[in-house]
What we know:
- The structure holds two protein chains of two kinds.
- Chain A has helices at residues 3-7, 10-17, 65-78, 83-98, 126-141, and strands at residues 30-36, 41-50, 53-62, 147-148.
- Chain A is of the alpha+beta class.
- Chain A has one domain (3-141): Sufe protein. Chain: A.
- The mean pLDDT of chain A is 91.
- The termini of chain B are far apart.
- Classes of the chains: A alpha+beta, B alpha/beta.
- The interface between A and B is medium-sized, with 20 and 16 residues.
Amino acid sequence: MSELSELYQEVILDHNKRPRNFHVPDGANRHVEGFNPLCGDHFTIYLRVEGDLIRDAGFQGAGCAISKASASLMTDSIKGRTLAEADRLFAQFHGMVTAPGDEVPDLDALGKLAVFAGVREFPMRVKCASLAWHALHAAIQQTGESVTTE
Amino acid sequence: MKPAFELDRQAAFDVQRVREDFPILSRTVRGGRPLVYLDNAATTQKPRQVLDALAGYYTGYNANVHRGVHQLSEEATAAYEAGRLAVSRFLNTRDPREIVFTRNATEAVNLVADSFGRLKVRAGDEILVSAMEHHSNIVPWQMLCERTGARLRVLPITDRGELVLDELAGLLTDRTRLLAVTHLSNALGTVNPVHEIVEVAHAHGVAVLVDGAQAAYHMPVDVQAIGCDFYVITGHKLYGPTGIGALYGRLDWLEAMPPYQGGGDMIASVTFEKTTYNAVPAKFEAGTPHIAGVVGLRAAVEYLTALGMERIAAHEHELLAYGTEVLQAVPGLRLIGTARQKASILSFVLDGVHPHDIGTIVDQEGVAIRTGHHCAQPVMQRFGIPATARASLALYNTREELDALARALARVREVFS
């Protein structure tokens, strides 16, 4: 498989075309804006948090295929998880897309999210893949600030 | 002074021969694909003549300028001032002292915003810019307005990306101190009628700064014919080195304006009680300048002059027409910027595909384009888009390279089918 088809896998193209959770969830009580000023990707991540559990997640905004598919798959994969689990997933995802070329990242823990492993061959696109995740991280930490990746 | 090299001006523009002057064009990218470099509006590649001039300076006569009495300093000073003369001729200024060397076009705009601002701009005054400016011709004026209490006003553009010139006179009030406008838009490719604009502005007593960062490497520029008060250029887009640019300022303005930065070279004498400033242009060139940059820039403008800016413009005009045709045949592609007078820029969006994805996919085919807002976010807002993909032409590009772009865009369509 070429590097390009590893980047634009079917799952990613599908989530770009038909993003899941592309709405503001009912009863959302946390949201954080993520912005990549370089390419104009701009998403807001919404969470409905009860206790330490993420009951629902959604997103709104616009961006490239990688950033949109990433937000879509992320919101799918964090629903029903605790805040601590979701934040651990953030760290694992971040580790995967920024791992040096000669290191094989641990993909097992990431499940479906492993489709983004190809991003690490495209340094200019790592920010696209991780934008929604940085916003999620900020929503979990409740920094009260929007995030930018530049 | 004799140019360092000459070409036959009568001969037809031989792009294949010209390409041989640019060593980088023979390299391959992304696993052996020939490089198709279409990001010239960001920076152009450098001909051997410029590279040789840079090496020649550092290997032959590297020394500081203006104060040394030894031979190397004499030679370096002569080369530095020969660079000023070359740029002066390239832009057809009345006097070589009207050329001030800066780091780039951005610094030249900042110099004017700071120095002209201190001379002329007070609270309640107005600065007029156009809606198609690069951030570097917006932000320095905003900073000036913040500092002085002046007000920034904006001349709008049409859906084709042309200035609404009918509104120009109405926006020039008795409080307007300066109009800053680009000669050639980096995001849209629009060539503005700067001579007409200057006439209208001057009729209202308003000074004009023209941003020539994009225009100067695509068409002949004659600052006297344009009639502007200031014109800014940057070396790295002119096939010269990075880190060197120039400000053209009308001599009477430069003499009246206060210095920009303080330091060595810009002074006549210094005591702790009082410093007397040097004459123009040294007054605006504090510190050791980018001597190698000036040497390289001279080689670049002499290279362009020898090729002939008219011939370069004609070659690129033909390429732009061909590229416009080729791109319009791509299903779902929309050109952003369809002004009647255009040069060198093909900015576009593709239905259902974000420009960033276009950029990554065509790069895998060896085609280098730019995607994003091109440091012109107000232009993107005007057209209601987050970004565009932009192919930009230079003198060494060919029809075959535009065909390669079209093939790469077909690949984008495949991936996103």
